[in-house]
Amino acid sequence: MSEAHAQTQPEERLEIRPFGPEHMAAALTLSRQVGWPHRKEDWELAMAVSDGVVATQGDRVVGTACCSRFGAVTFYNMIIVDAALRGQGLGRRLMEAVMEPGAGSEMRLTATREGLPLYEKLGFAATHEILQHQGIARTTSPDLPVRDGSVADIGRLAEMDRNASGLERRDLLERIAVQGQVLLADGGFALVREFGRGHVIGPVVAEDAAVARALIAEGARRIAGRFLRIDLPEAAGLSEFVESLVLEHVGGGTAMVRAPGPAVDGDYQTYALVSQALG
Ligand SMILES: CC(C)(COP(=O)(O)OP(=O)(O)OC[C@H]1O[C@@H](n2cnc3c(N)ncnc32)[C@H](O)[C@@H]1OP(=O)(O)O)[C@@H](O)C(=O)NCCC(=O)NCCS
Q1: CA trace torsion 126, 128, 129, 130 (10° rounding)
Q2: Using one digit for the tens of pLDDT, what is the confidence trace for 8-38?
Q3: pLDDT reported for residue 190
Q4: Same domain, 52 and 145
């Protein structure tokens, strides 16, 4: 072998393989590399309700793409390519691999600005904006009564959630309720859990904005003085209210859909997401 060959090893082959528990630590490193706040526990919660693929190069994980099947709708998330390998078609390969089993079903995702062109090329179309708000929550009190619920309520709450979003995600909501708090009002509910740098309120599902505001106010009251995040569909119209709780608008994403099923037209509405990844 020439000296030049000995010094510049040929690039190791990129391979796409199923995401397994052994990839979790490397996936966490990748999400930190792109500045996402996920902790190990947040990846574990996502993967408890998801499948995925990783791209490996030798024994290094250099990309991830996951999907969560919520009944008739599949959500795509945690799509990351190592910064050194972007722009070479790996994102597309990961997406094509993870989308294959969901072919024919409605597909949704929340795109970052970087991901948007890739998803458009894959047939996704923007539906609405998601506004990310966060900050140190201030003490506040709800205008309507809010009481504690428990895991025992989740069957009923999952029905409200499905009515609002078209997503069947009882398993996910149950897992969140086990770890976090369940808030109930007449005409809605909210879940509060630890996530990233602090806590998240979401989902918030309600019959109207007044109920949603009360649920969010009570969630913020419980987290007062600590870091709180909330991701709002722009059209739900609570951005100004959430800013009044000193939760600043810091960015967000674009909700996208491919092969949409029948429009969701329920009595309930989603006022805040579980997360940008899980809808
Ligand atoms: C988004 C991301 C996964 C894309 O990965 P990637 O490996 O760079 O993407 P690819 O090289 O496969 O590009 C896919 C396609 O999008 C196109 N594309 C990528 N960036 C583009 C841009 N800024 N403008 C126009 N087209 C763009 C490419 O030309 C390519 O098109 P082609 O397949 O027709 O040639 C990667 O940028 C990333 O990890 N970003 C940080 C994390 C993130 O934001 N993830 C998205 C979460 S929703």
Answers
A1: -110
A2: 455 789 999 999 999 999 999 999 999 999 9
A3: 98
A4: no
Query: Taking the mean position of all CA atoms in its chain, how far away is CA 255?
Result: 11
CB neighbours of 234 closer than 8 A, spacing ≥ 6? 128, 129, 130, 131, 252
Q: Are 162 and 71 in contact (CB under 8 A)?
A: yes
Boundary (domain end) residue, out of 83, 102, 127: 127
pLDDT at residue 177, as a whole number: 98
CATH of the domain at 244: 3.40.630.90
71 plus 46 within the same structural domain: yes
Is the pLDDT reported for residue 265 higher than 90?
no
CB 258 within 8 A of CB 102: no
Choosing from 32, 118, 258 the residue with most ligand 1 atoms within 8 A of its CB, the one to mutate for a pocket test is 118
Cβ atoms of residues 119 and 109 within 8 Å: yes
Place of tokens 């000995």: 6
Return d(Cα 105, Cα 108) in angstroms, integer: 10
CATH of the domain at 97: 3.40.630.30
Q: Name, in order, each residue with C-beta under 8 angstroms of 191's C-beta and a sequence gap of 6 or more.
A: 173, 176, 177, 180, 181, 182, 183, 201, 202, 203, 274
Number of domains present in the structure of the chain: 2
Helix then strand then coil, in percent of the chain rounded to 5, is 35, 35, 30
> Ligand 1: residues within 6 Å at CB?
34, 79-81, 86-92, 111-112, 114-115, 117-118, 121
HSE on the CB side for 244, CA within 13 Å?
9
